[in-house]
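Batch manifest, entry 17 of 40.
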Amino acid sequence: MDFDAVYKEMFKPVYAYVLLRTQDENLAQDLASKTWQKVFDKQNSYDPRKGNFRQWLFTIARNEVNSYFRLYYVRKVLSISAFEEDFKNSEDNPETAAEQKDLEEKLKLAMGKLKSNYRDILALKFYSGMSNEEIAQMLNISASNVGTIINRAVNKLRILLEAEHVA
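Output type: structure tokens
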């Protein structure tokens, strides 16, 4: 395994996943760093027969986050400002940029109101790019259950956003 290549390719998805789960940039940096340290230390223990590398990597990240919450049970406001520049069009005018920032903030707040298992599965699906089958294997549930949870989470998110007159 070429660790440098994997790190370059997967750093942002891992960080985004941890950030969505923790809702705190500093904490996400710490936990993502611990995740990458474990991946580096245990890279020789990866067994492709137990799942693909992406699943293994996100299982480590998920375990780091779960371990943190078991020990400290901390919740803070979600902020992915480090990634906002990646998602914005550099040609946006100030008014459009302000509207986009407002929308992003409302989405972050709505995500923070979801149950943690909803946030977890949405993060695995949309931030890590994992398929329902990969998520199902990782969480030891069926792929159809993953799909159902995603559907429920998105519907709840839609309701929360409609209450804010966003959707």
